[in-house]
Specification:
Elements: E1 12-15, H1 19-30, E2 37-40, H2 56-59, H3 72-77, E3 80-83, E4 88-92, E5 97-100, E6 105-107, E7 110-113, E8 117-119, E9 133-134, H4 139-148, E10 154-158, H5 162-173, E11 177-182, H6 194-206, E12 210-213, E13 217-221, E14 228-231, E15 236-238, E16 241-244, E17 248-250, H7 253-257, E18 266-268, E19 279-281, E20 286-290, E21 293-295, H8 300-314, E22 326-331, E23 334-340, E24 347-353, E25 357-364, E26 367-374, H9 377-389, H10 395-398, H11 405-408
Helix pairs in contact: 1-8
Amino acid sequence: MPAASHAADAGTLIVGAGQAGLTVAETLRKGGYAAPVTLIGAEADAPYQRPPLSKGYLLGDVGRDRLALKPPEWFARHDVTLRTGLRVAEIELESRHVRLADGERLAWRHLVIATGARPRPLPEAIGGRLAGVHTIRARTDIDRLRADLVPGARLLVIGGGYIGLEAAAAARTRGLEVVLIESAPRLLARVTGAETADWLAETHRRNGVDLRLGCQLVRLHGADRVTAAEFGDGSRIAVDCVVVGIGALPETALAEQADLACANGIRVDARGRTSREGVWAAGDCATFDLPDGPLRLESVGNAVDTGALVARNILGADDAYAPEPWFWSDQYATKLQIAGLSAPGDAVVVRDVAGEGRSHWYIRSGRLVAVDALGAPRAYMSARKLLKAGLTPPTDRIGDPKTPLGDLLATCR
């Protein structure tokens, strides 16, 4: 077994080489951190962007080289040790080491868990392990899926969330027949309002997607490879391949092994600290305990913000997480951009202005809390500024197409 290093001079060890983990490393070095920084990734690739996977990369518009978050020389230049293709098997809290699957032990003074999330799988009992059934998380997932996206083939998409909708749009663009089923009565039921969901549903239908809402999958059929799908209404269709987009689960196995507090993610305080001294968590795997309640987000913005937060606090700051959520999704020619977090029961003001695009503004207890911009980038940027400043324009002015976006700020209370 390789000799273990000493924890006293071990610096910061980051488990998870995605956006959050890389942001920790980068922020530490920018802040003058002089101790060792080691970044460990389970995938063979160096840190890369995930959002383009189900968009430009799936379509072939974005090459593998353009996915990289940093050029290879960046790591040497900033003295960040990057080790990929490695799995951490155990956290040894008392000795402040981790044990890799091959038995090697690495020391740490600060340990950051940034293991992200994994796709929720379709159960094996209903055909989830058949060939031709795909989930989307890693680059290699898309490489396998691409081989099945043959023009004229029929793709079944299970789940009407962002991943499923983006996969459906990409498949239609590539010339496949697409059937998308969603068990809820509308799309995106957990993450956005009915107005946005209805607009996207109509967009997909207009582009030829056979969209079936309130539709339950009973099982997939096939010997070794999927050939058909059976639904709760008794109908059955032939399919050539399947994309499963039914949500994601925080990757908490390593934290649970170390007996860290976990509940829908690794529980951390507002500064990113776990229940054990010296251990932090950031990104999709972390649930922050905030004054308004626990919060776990799955987005690039969250990964960047929480990764930077944890690094600043390792450097000695005492910063609390103040989320400023933002998301985006590309579907056909439309870019959906979301600022803030809406919730069921929010009042919705629709702004639809020729040349500006359409946007949905969510008001809760008289306060602006979120905006969905559908091909309306200027509305999105205006909304982010208003949300950051805690300002709310009068609702009648928001929805008035005669009120320029630039004038909304002047009307705020």
